[in-house]
Write the structure tokens for this entry.
Amino acid sequence: MSITRLDSGSSTATDGVPLVYTPAVAAATADVYERVRAVVPEVEWPVHAPYIDAIERWKRSRGAVVLAHNYQTPEIFHGVADLSGDSLALAQQAAETDAEVIVMCGVHFMAETAKMLSPEKTVLIPDLEAGCSLAASISGADVRRLRERHPGVPVVTYVNTSVEVKAESDICCTSSNAVEVVESLGVDRVIFLPDEFLGRYVADNTDVEVILWQGHCEVHERFTGDELRDYRKTYPGIQIFAHPECPPDVLSEADYVGSTAGLIRHVDATRPERVVLVTECSMSDNVAVAHPDVEFIRPCNLCPHMKQITLPKILTALERLQHEVTIDPDVAGRGRRAVERMLEVGRGAGG
Ligand code: SF4
């Protein structure tokens, strides 16, 4: 594998040596740029293109598949991803490929989910610091303590959690099937972990009593109902589609509430003239590529953890096969069973 490097330039790999934008690189990446030109400024392209070109060659050499969550930046989402979407769907689709290596462009729990469903594959995350405030809000020991406090009450756990927490749970759920999963258990009470706002949304849509945990997504918890009412005043006729990790006053103001996959499907189905997706900022850019006729008003709440992942780090991950995600097989098996129980309830998607 040969990659041209220079001593100076505008983009820098993790070893500090930049790649060069050459006419050959420009030609090799021209079709990608055509797709993303509406959302990636032309001045940025010479920075991204050499990495996109090099990553493509390393993917072939490693027998690797690159997964990108909906919240990744467009140069990753449209530039190098083989599969894109929400966390569980990515892990499920990657498991069905014959790739030997999976590179997860998402956060740590997503890489764990990919490893959990593909134990025989090498799963890499380009930056170990790509965490998640929601997943970090709860540990396996917390779940065991909750079980002691509420004996016999089943634990329903959102997929945005560590494998250790999934392994302590009776069943997992996504943001689109949470109500269905809770009701499938046929009980009066459940413990719902860890997202408080998703749990409140579930409680508002079922007669089952929901015991909540106070975990929050630091991106979605920042939205407010006032902000959305301001959008309605500033942009008459705007449609507001919100993710259920948002606070209740935001969800009550929304025209539609759904998972990331649900938000995309709803844009596809309704093709609004003007819409605001009340979720992480990059998603609007990624969806806009396929919807040039829709005006996306972009609330700029970025996930700092997702943004740890960059093209240079993806390249380094492939070059060095770093950072490999490993999971204790017993924990992985118990986590997988909680996900499989959810899949028996219904083919939910979201995250
Ligand atoms: S957007 Fe929220 S839930 Fe998703 S990774 Fe970032 S902090 Fe976690």
User: Anything to note?
Assistant: DSSP finds 16 helices and twelve strands in the chain. Residues 1-12 have pLDDT under 50 and may be disordered. The longest helix spans residues 45-62. The pocket of iron/sulfur cluster is lined by residues 71, 107, 132-134, 160, 217-219, 280, 303, 305-306 (CB under 6 Å).
